[in-house]
């Protein structure tokens, strides 16, 4: 990789305690299990999976907004280097400045009682990044302009804006502290296609302009294919495949990735019936199956898959897959 | 195929505190038995209120236009939906001959009544079945939609089911009264793609088996391409294009449909730029004059677009669009 790694996880697990278990070991649900991931500086990294796959939890753990139970996350932007597991209070404050989150729902994420100017200025004030109101205003105007909001907009309240404009306000707020790393969690899922295209183009433009690194969490593979340079596919808290976007979409190796790609409805009406259907649903993480977590739905599962969990193996340049049988069953997309 | 429903000049306005808004403006379409029609448009285009009008299921401040005519063709003769007044009369279009599936199955089931009791209740209302027969049919329907162990699921509550399973139960419930027309309002939008593929397959099987008509409301053109026979595209309460699914997706005739397709990310060409439609959908309180789409249209052909509302024009067999650009092609006709 030409770019240095900005943020990486090693053996990262996020466990949440469950009720009960007075006797014996405390029961827990493993939302994220033993994840290794490396995100290069300046990358637009996609994280995909069904609901319940742990993609949001992984994103939050990388922001230190979810507890790190095992393993660690390292962040290094050339100025500072942090190990997130044991980050002191002061360093955590500094990290918040460098790593930010854009939420999914632009209607719920903005306070209806604050003007757009105050919403965007809040991180600056909370973190004490500016020393005067003039300086704050200047910074807010500068970021707002980047997100195509004009001075007139800053005086209004969120209710006066459409979904796409609100998402631009959320983006401006995430960017105002000058972060290096942004987690965008389903940031375009609630938007209509034409607005979605607009917001995606804006995110890409900002990323190139400000040299940011994105972790782009989405359930929509067609969106990920268009904007991301690398993709990781998650299933039940594990990363099952990761590769550069083009490789993943042209030569998916994991049966789950193949099934996900095949399930996307094609725009060609003559493709009907070509879908390779995946039976069943994602199992509950409180009671995961033994062996490979995908074996309950996998058409290629053999006895080995039911007992032994596969680890990520190299399947090509920067291409890794966790499947016992990837060499035999790896499919072609479409 | 026989005609199932005719919608003529459907106009629907709402009285609000901020004034009277037009949600649906002179919309006409028809559907045959066994046909699937996709109704497409952005949020605020009026697709859901259009569908709900067929069941007269809009709130009290709704005002239907005087020329609105909705005719449902049943075996016992045509039913004039607009003339239905009392709750008893409306049973026929609300759960009897027309069923509705909503987007969010969690919100559509009562949380404190078991799935089974809800299914039995509506069968008791709409059919002559006894309680025991209703129960039997409900369990059978749960089995038909692919819910394993239907006997147990029958006694469970909505929160005990996963999202995909809830949507299947919703479909089972909607189909148990054997409706002639099923309205599915974004039935797969809240589901993961793998579950979406299962639900779409299920709905296609059921159309074949029950021979009903379906109005499939969605903003996802991929879902439309895989399910619908014909497509109607709506913008700001107006129908702007209608045609067979192949024609509309391969040869879109209205600039708005072209815009929607250009904005859609597809896997066929991941390097293609995504082209958004400029601007936002205008507020229904400030409907543009002339063609409602002219404020965002990239193919405006002069002042005419902002003055004169375009009429529906045939561009091909069974393919029509409401846009002035087709006027020139029409020539003297």
Automatic annotation (TrEMBL), chain A:
Coiled coil: none annotated. The keyword Nucleotide-binding applies. It comes from Sulfitobacter aestuariivivens. The keyword Mitochondrion does not apply. It is found in: Cell inner membrane. Residues 9-261 form the ABC transporter domain. This is ATP-binding cassette domain-containing protein. SMART domains: AAA. It is a peripheral membrane protein.
From TrEMBL, chain B:
Residues 5-261 form the ABC transporter domain. Keywords: ATP-binding, Cell membrane, Membrane, Nucleotide-binding, Transport. It is a peripheral membrane protein. Its main location: membrane. Gene3D superfamilies: P-loop containing nucleotide triphosphate hydrolases. It holds the Pfam family ABC_tran. It is found in: Cell inner membrane. PROSITE patterns: ABC_TRANSPORTER_1 (PS00211), ABC_TRANSPORTER_2 (PS50893). GO terms for biological process: peptide transport; transmembrane transport. One of its GO terms (molecular function) is ATP hydrolysis activity. GO terms for cellular component: plasma membrane. InterPro entries: AAA+_ATPase (IPR003593), ABC_Ni/Peptide_Import (IPR050388), ABC_transporter-like_ATP-bd (IPR003439), ABC_transporter-like_CS (IPR017871), Oligopep_ABC_C (IPR013563), P-loop_NTPase (IPR027417). It comes from the Bacteria. Belongs to the ABC transporter superfamily. This is ABC transporter ATP-binding protein. It comes from Sulfitobacter aestuariivivens. The lineage of its organism: Bacteria, Pseudomonadati, Pseudomonadota, Alphaproteobacteria, Rhodobacterales.
């Amino acid at each position: 990789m030409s770019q240095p790694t900005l943020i990486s996880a090693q053996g990262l697990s996020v466990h949440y305690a469950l009720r009960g278990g007075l006797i014996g070991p405390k029961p827990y649900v493993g939302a994220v299990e033993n994840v290794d991931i490396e995100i290069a500086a300046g990358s637009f990294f996609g994280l995909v999976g069904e609901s319940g796959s742990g993609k949001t939890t992984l994103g939050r753990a990388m922001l230190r907004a979810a507890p790190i139970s095992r393993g660690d996350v390292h962040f290094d932007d050339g100025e500072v280097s942090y190990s997130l597991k044991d980050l002191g209070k002061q360093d955590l404050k500094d990290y918040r400045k460098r790593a930010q989150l854009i939420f999914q729902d632009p209607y719920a994420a903005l306070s209806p009682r604050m003007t757009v100017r105050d919403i965007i200025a809040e991180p600056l004030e909370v973190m004490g990044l500016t020393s005067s109101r003039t300086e704050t205003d200047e910074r807010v105007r500068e970021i707002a302009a980047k997100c195509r909001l004009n001075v007139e907009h800053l005086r209004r309240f969120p209710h006066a804006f459409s979904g796409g404009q609100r998402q631009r306000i959320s983006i401006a707020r995430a960017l105002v502290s000058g972060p290096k790393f942004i987690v965008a969690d389903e940031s375009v899922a609630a938007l209509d296609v034409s607005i979605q295209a607009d917001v995606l183009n804006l995110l890409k433009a900002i990323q190139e302009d400000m040299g940011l690194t994105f972790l782009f969490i989405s359930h929509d593979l067609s969106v990920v294919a268009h904007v991301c340079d690398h993709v990781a596919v998650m299933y039940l808290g594990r990363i099952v495949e990761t590769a550069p976007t083009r490789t993943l979409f042209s030569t998916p190796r994991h049966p789950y990735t193949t099934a996900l790609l095949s399930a996307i409805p094609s725009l060609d009406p003559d493709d009907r019936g070509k879908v390779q259907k995946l039976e069943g649903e994602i199992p509950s993480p409180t009671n995961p199956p033994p062996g490979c977590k995908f074996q309950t739905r996998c058409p290629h599962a053999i006895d080995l898959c039911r007992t032994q969990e596969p680890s990520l193996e190299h399947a090509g340049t920067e291409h890794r897959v966790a499947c016992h049988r990837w060499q035999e069953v790896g499919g072609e997309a479409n | 195929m026989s005609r199932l429903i005719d919608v003529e000049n459907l106009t629907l306005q709402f009285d609000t505190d901020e004034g009277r808004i037009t949600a649906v403006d002179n919309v006409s379409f028809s559907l045959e038995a066994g046909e699937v029609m996709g109704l497409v448009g952005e949020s605020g285009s009026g697709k859901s209120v259009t569908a709900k009008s067929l069941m007269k299921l809009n709130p009290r401040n709704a005002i239907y236009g005087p020329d609105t005519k909705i005719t449902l063709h049943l075996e016992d003769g045509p039913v004039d939906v607009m003339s239905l007044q009392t709750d008893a009369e409306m049973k026929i279009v609300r759960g009897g001959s027309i069923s509705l599936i909503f987007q969010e199955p969690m919100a559509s089931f009562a949380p404190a009544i078991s799935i089974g009791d809800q299914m039995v209740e509506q069968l008791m209302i709409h059919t002559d079945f006894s309680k025991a027969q209703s129960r039997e049919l409900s369990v059978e329907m749960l089995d038909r939609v692919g819910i394993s162990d239907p006997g147990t699921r029958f006694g469970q509550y909505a929160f005990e089911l996963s999202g995909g399973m809830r949507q299947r139960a919703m479909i089972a419930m909607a189909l148990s009264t054997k409706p002639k027309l099923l309205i599915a309002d974004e039935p797969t939008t809240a589901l993961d793609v793998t579950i979406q593929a299962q639900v779409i397959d299920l709905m296609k099987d059921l159309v074949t088996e029950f021979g009903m008509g379906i109005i499939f409301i969605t903003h996802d053109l991929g879902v439309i391409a895989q399910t619908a026979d014909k497509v109607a595209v709506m913008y700001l309460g107006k129908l702007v294009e209608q045609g067979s699914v192949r024609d509309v997706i391969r040869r879109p005739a209205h600039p708005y449909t072209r815009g929607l397709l250009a904005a859609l990310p597809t896997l066929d060409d991941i390097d293609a730029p995504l082209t958004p439609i400029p601007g936002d959908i205008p507020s229904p309180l400030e409907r543009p004059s002339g063609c409602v789409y002219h404020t965002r249209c990239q193919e405006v052909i002069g002042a005419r677009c902002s003055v004169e509302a375009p009429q529906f024009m045939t561009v091909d067999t069974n393919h029509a669009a409401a846009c002035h650009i087709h006027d020139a092609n029409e020539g003297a006709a």
